[in-house]
């Protein structure tokens, strides 16, 4: 595995052009001040309630509330790199939305033999209830979180790759917004020295996007955020986004359906709802259609949805396009639907359901990252180079027993960014999750959420696995 691409320093250890001003500032900051600022940030985040729940703590078996560690050394992206990444994100999400619409309508991509039919029809994320259902503007994933990594090339340059598409209920945008506010509070002098593209208008863009996909003929749409409740791991974000958009945060019990129309219970009587930004999975939305034991959703919601009287963001059935078994086909989707070459590349991927791919993966388990196709949050995966012999052999047994449940990829050495850890400033591996909004137009704020693997050598950036976050700066020209 070749050395990591260092975001801040070139091969000669000199700062890259877009980091030079920051490096000069960092060089004169006392370690004691940086440590004090980190402690200040932790106190403020805890006071505001910026925590996430971890289910089933391995020691106690109980859920715990944790802060996501915040690192005050930002990840900086120059304007020209962001422009290309943004174009690639617009292209990719546009093609994915076309794909989902096609799957639930004409299935032209299946007829063309590009995506195997069984990969769709036997997929746990396929919702036959959505066949033939029209959604506003044919958009299914209104809010997408696309995970991007950078790996080093032989010549020392770095290339961006899409690692994963999150099209159902992607989380993390509240940390992007709060990290920026924190950096501006702790280090206002830095913002005077850099032209950093703003992100604070994300809630305005989100509300604009949601309103733009209201049912036909609704001029002043009523938007709500639907949460599973305060015990959900991302509840802070649900409440935060509702508050920032100035809309109601509701639970399933706050809603009811009458004559295929969704209403919210209020002290002044029922109020009609037009758009629901739902932060719970398909299975829990409507006990009359999906899980009958769900108390989190609203009976009759899907009937109102199919009748075109309410828009759900993201749409039911969107998960068919972010399943890891479908990921390898996205470059072909871009060519099929848009007639374009992909701007952002996939990570090369082995599909273990294919006999030749499976044999290669079994022969090289110690070198690869192997993932469950339905897995998330860093769970259900093997990072071969970091695994013990026993872990590899245990995983081998799972893989042989159910090969179609796994994909495998080369172990990319994710790029590193200087990070303030207990021993001082040291490189740590990072990724980036930009948030792409699809409504009347496709738009996003510059940057996204940078996640950082705080353990030395670790490639797992997920907060549930001990990762932290950084502010992401896109420099303006």
Automatic annotation (TrEMBL):
SUPFAM superfamilies: Glutathione synthetase ATP-binding domain-like. Pfam families: CP_ATPgrasp_2. InterPro entries: ATP-dep_Glu-Cys_Ligase-2, CP_ATPgrasp_2, UCP005522. It comes from the Bacteria. Residues 74-453 form the Circularly permuted ATP-grasp type domain. This is Putative circularly permuted ATP-grasp superfamily protein. It comes from Roseateles toxinivorans.
């Amino acid at each position: 595995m070749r050395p990591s691409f260092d975001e801040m320093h070139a091969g000669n250890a000199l700062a890259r052009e877009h980091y030079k001003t920051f490096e000069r500032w960092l060089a004169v900051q006392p370690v004691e001040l940086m440590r004090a600022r980190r402690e200040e940030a932790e106190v403020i985040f805890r006071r505001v309630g910026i925590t996430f729940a971890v289910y089933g703590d391995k020691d106690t078996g109980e859920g715990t509330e944790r802060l996501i560690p915040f690192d005050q050394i930002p990840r900086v992206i120059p304007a020209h790199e962001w422009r290309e990444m943004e174009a690639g994100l617009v292209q990719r999400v546009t093609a994915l939305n076309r794909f989902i619409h096609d799957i639930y309508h004409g299935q032209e991509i299946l007829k063309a033999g590009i995506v195997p039919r069984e990969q769709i029809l036997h997929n746990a994320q396929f919702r036959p209830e959505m066949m033939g259902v029209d959604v506003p503007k044919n958009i299914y994933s209104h809010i997408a979180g696309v995970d991007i990594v950078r790996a080093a090339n032989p010549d020392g340059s770095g290339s961006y790759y899409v690692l994963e598409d999150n099209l159902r209920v992607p989380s993390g945008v509240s940390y992007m917004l709060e990290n920026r506010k924190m950096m501006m509070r702790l280090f206002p002098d830095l913002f005077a020295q850099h032209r950093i593209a703003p992100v604070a208008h994300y809630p305005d863009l989100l509300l604009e996007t949601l309103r733009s996909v209201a049912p036909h003929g609704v001029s002043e749409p009523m938007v709500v955020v639907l949460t599973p409740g305060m015990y959900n791991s991302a509840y802070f974000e649900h409440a935060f986004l509702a508050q920032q958009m100035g809309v109601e945060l509701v639970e399933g019990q706050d809603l009811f359906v009458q004559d295929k129309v969704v209403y919210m219970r209020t002290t002044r009587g029922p109020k009609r709802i037009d758009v629901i930004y739902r932060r719970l999975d398909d299975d829990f939305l409507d006990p009359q259609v999906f899980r009958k034991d769900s108390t989190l959703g609203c009976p009759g919601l899907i009937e109102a949805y199919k009748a075109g009287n309410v828009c759900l963001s993201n749409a039911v059935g969107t998960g068919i396009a972010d399943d890891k078994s479908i990921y390898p086909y996205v470059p072909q989707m871009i060519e099929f639907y848009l007639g374009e070459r992909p701007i952002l590349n996939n990570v090369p991927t082995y599909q273990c359901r294919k006999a030749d791919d499976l044999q290669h993966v079994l022969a090289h388990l110690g070198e690869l990252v192997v993932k469950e196709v339905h897995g998330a949050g860093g769970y259900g995966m093997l990072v071969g180079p970091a695994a013990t012999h026993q872990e590899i052999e245990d995983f081998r047994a799972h893989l042989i027993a159910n090969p179609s449940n796994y994909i495998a990829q080369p172990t990319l050495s994710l790029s590193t960014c200087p990070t303030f850890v207990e021993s001082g400033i040291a490189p740590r591996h990072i990724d980036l999750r930009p948030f792409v909004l699809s409504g009347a137009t496709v738009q996003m704020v510059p940057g996204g959420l940078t996640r950082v693997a705080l353990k030395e050598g670790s490639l797992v950036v997920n907060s549930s696995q001990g990762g932290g976050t950084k502010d992401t700066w896109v420099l303006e020209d």
